[in-house]
Amino acid sequence: MSEDKYIGMDVHQASVVCAVHNAAGKCIARSIIETKAETVRDFLRGLSGTLHVTFEEGTQAAWLHGLVKPLVAELVVCNPRRNHLLKEGSKSDKVDASKLAELLRAGLDKAVYHGAPSVAPLKELAHAYDQLTQDRVRVMSRLKALYRARAIPCAGSTPYSHAHRSEWLEQLSEPAQRQRAMWLYAEMDAINALRREAHNRMLGEARPHPAFARLVGVPGLGPIRAAQLIAAVASPHRFRTKRQFWAYCGLAVVTKSSADYQLVEGRWVQQARACQTRGLNEQFNHRLKAVFKSAVLEALKEETFKRYHERLRERGLRAELARVQVARKLAAVALAVWKRAAAYDAERVIKRAA
Known about the structure:
The protein is of the alpha/beta class. The protein is built from 13 helices and nine strands. It has three domains: about 5-105, 2-Layer Sandwich (Nucleotidyltransferase, domain 5), CATH 3.30.420; about 120-205; about 220-255 and about 285-354, no CATH class.
């Protein structure tokens, strides 16, 4: 009968510190290896028994997941935010590796999803598009800051247009100021060209996906948001219910209460006071939250979601909370359309929202 071995890996740029525990929780081996593919393979192949491996989500996690997965019986890429045990006691690479192995042996690791390799190219292209969009916004903000610092009004989009560029440059009196603005314009033009290319490549990769056409049909999503949704989620079957999906999108309401029960005539009775709401959950996928928050503004132009939003407002819900509810409805519709491989049905949304 093969022995179970639980391996914790503390991964760094140059080294991986490994701790091997047996089924009884005893540390039977420690090793420091280079962060290289062959070194990791040789280390795992040199161990006998049934191997269970864990390491934390990080920069090298996706690469290491693909490398280790075929070599072990179980692999858990764990969420570092949930590993509070690592913060207790002494802190070192060897201690962290041992604690990871012990968390894995006890089944206390919170896994991070690393499936659907077929979506990996789309995920890379979506990352590139998001980063170029952020770089574009950053350069545009710097350009307007240059004008504002000289008390030059620069509201609107005309400071960025090619047609009015010379007029804006003439408003800068010093040659060094004009040169700085010209460099910013050149940087913006280069980023815009790269962003257009990333946009086309991302949509070209997303269109063959079976869910793309159906997700585009959901009000507010559109081609770009549908591509970002597919890249972030990969598979809708990761989520058993819409509430789990809401939490992943940062749309789950967090409530907290204490001293919920009191003894009345020999019986425990739950107190009538309501739980205290503490806003939305703090740990979520930032790309998905941005997708659904921006999709709300487009979806409210469509009659179905517009009426749903109006009903929420009529019930006394504040404007920001009503928009959150619309975002949750959009997320639930997108998940259902994707899971069932069915087209968007406005009548069904109306019935559910009534």
